[in-house]
Amino acid sequence: MPMTELQIEREVLIDAPVDVVWRTITQPDQVQQWFADRVELDLKQGGRGLLVFGDQDDPLVIETVEPPTRFSFRWNYPAGEKPGPGNSMLVEFTLAAEGERTRLRVQETGHELHAWPESEKNRYAEEHREGWGTFTDRLARLLAERPHR
Amino acid sequence: MTPDPDDELWSAIGDPSRRRVLDLLVRRGEASASWLAGQVPFSRQAVSKHLAVLEEAGLVSPRKQGREVLYRVEAARLDQATHAMAQLASQWDRRLDAIKRLAESAHAKTKSKES
Questions:
Q1: For residue A31, what are the contacts with CB-CB under 8 A and spacing of at least 6?
Q2: Closest-CA residue of chain A to B94
Q3: How many CA atoms lie within 13 A of B46 on its CB side?
Q4: pTM of the predicted protein model
Q5: Is B115 strand, coil or helix?
Q6: d(Cα A52, Cα A75) in Å, to the nearest integer?
Q7: Which residues does A47 contact at the CB level (< 8 Å), separation at least 6?
């Protein structure tokens, strides 16, 4: 079981068929219109890409290309390192047809904690069973409850 | 712009036991490791370890009072964590909105050509 990680999940219902949405999120000239100023994508598993934001370049590596339902890539990893769990963020798009429309879901997850020693895992196992999940809600609640100084 | 997630911060809050410790500190205002250990189902040693990680991430700070060390939450840092999280989420909301507009107008064009 992975340790709790940063996780963001968002979705939108689009009044267009799945293949149109697929092109919007995978064709560089389209991606340039919603993501970065300039986009390069080698659309295949393991393919590299580049997102240019102003004078900042963000490289990415594509993990999954399953037209027209799944597309994922990793980014935000240290320069010179191979992106993987623990050193990068994984962005996953899932497309599902709903009649003529498409439900597009995006998840951004990453920076998993390194595995803990077995003894600690056991000690916290009980706690973890009840406590898994994204921490956004919890964090928001924490803030709401926080007494103002 | 890409977000700049703070590994230390995420790791510190990512663990449920640590969130519990943080949660207790938020409610209590200030507390010692022994008091915290009395509130949670894990050992005093584990509490100390969690406090060390939280302190490392700047989320709590210690203060010596007599023989005791009291910990309190660093509100600004907690705000920062929440804002970073909210910012990341709202970036995706904006991107998804843009994708929706693009795909829908592309689709509308195709449809009008067909008819």
A1: A24, A25, A39, A41
A2: A34
A3: 23
A4: 0.63
A5: coil
A6: 12
A7: A41, A61, A62, A65
Element (H, E) at A118: helix A118-131
Radius of gyration of chain B (CA): 22
Give helix A118-131 / helix B44-56 axis angle, nearest 10°: 80
The alpha carbon of residue B52 is apart from the nearest alpha carbon of chain A, in Å, by: 15
- Structure-token match 């939280």, residue found: B54
- Based on its alpha-carbon atoms, the radius of gyration of chain A, rounded to whole angstroms, reads 18
Interface touch B107/A145, C-beta < 8 Å: no
pLDDT at B1: 36
In total, chain A counts a number of residues equal to 149
Please tell me whether residue A56 adopts helix, strand or coil conformation.
Answer: strand
What amino acid is encoded at B26 in this protein?
Answer: V
pLDDT tens, residue by residue, B54-63:
998 888 999 9
A:B CB pairs within 8 Å = 140
Rounded to 10 deg, the angle between the A118-131 and B16-28 helix axes is 60
The yes/no answer to whether this complex scores an ipTM above 0.90 is no
Q: Give the other-Cβ count within 10 Å of A57's Cβ.
A: 13
Share of chain A above pLDDT 70, in %: 68
**What spatial distance separates the first Cα and last Cα of chain B, rounded to whole Å?**
41
The C-alpha of A99 sits at a distance from chain B's nearest C-alpha, in angstroms, of 14
Establish if B73 touches chain A: CB-CB under 8 angstroms: yes
- Whole-angstrom distance, CA of residue A123 vs CA of residue A128: 10
pLDDT tens-digit series, residues A70-109: 999 998 887 888 888 767 888 999 999 999 999 999 988 7
Which residues have C-beta within 8 Å of that of residue A20, sequence separation ≥ 6?
A102, B103, B106, B107, B110
Helix residue ranges, H only, B1-115: 7-14, 16-28, 33-37, 44-56, 75-114
